[in-house]
Amino acid sequence: MRNLLEFFIKYNYCFVFTLLEIIAFVLLFRSNHYQQSIFLTSANEITGKIYELSENVTSYFNLKMANRELLERNMWLEQQVSVLEKTLKRNSNMDSLTINIVKQSALNDYEIFKANVINNSLHLANNYLTLDQGASGGIRPDMGVVGGNGIVGIVYKTSPNYSLVISILNSKSNISCKIKNSDYFGYLQWEPGDSRYAYLKDFPRHAEVNLGDTVITSGHSTMFPEGIIVGTVNETSDSKDGLSYLLKVKLTTDFGNVSEVRIIARNEQNEILELEQNSKK
Questions:
Q1: Strand duo 197-204 + 214-217: pairing
Q2: Hey, where are the domains in the chain?
Q3: pTM value?
């Protein structure tokens, strides 16, 4: 306490000077409209800059949430567009009510779970991803996994809190895909090498296909609904036996930058798989 008093006594002139300066500025800005307007303008500008900086910081930290919402919205929109296009082809005389019913039912058969990628391999012959959601969160094998730019893979194994996913970049991966606006389909497989490309095999030779065509999931499996984007046709060639096309597909998913995904579960998946397994006995 004594030291504090000595400090104030020692620098009392500075404190008095500062106090008088503050009083002088208050009197100046209160008594003169010109100085008052300059002060208020400057204060408003500084406050505006502070608010702008605060908003930029807040927006930056909200980007992750915005990306999550966009990922979910993109997946729903892709599925709705695919279903609507297919339905409109069958019946061009539908009224608006029917169209809305079809739109709402686009993903009624599926349940969607959020997950984050905590491990990912790219350069092996058989690549896998590890997700931070497992059996305790409702995840089970054979569920489809989708990222913000397209399909990622299929759930292979689960533990209570984690899931192992067979990436598209895996020689065991075999996903039914087709060209958008066409019912002809083939099977997407990856050949070890470039993580940007995979191959659509057994695609019918009588089907029309052009470079740049969009490749989507066909819906001919329990893992993925129809219409989720896979990539674009980059190159066409004949298969080894000459009976079908071999399409080189540039994948829309950047597997070196996959962080958040959605796991898709078809509600009747177990029933369908059980029926198919019994038919093979």
A1: unpaired
A2: 2-55, 109-279
A3: 0.64
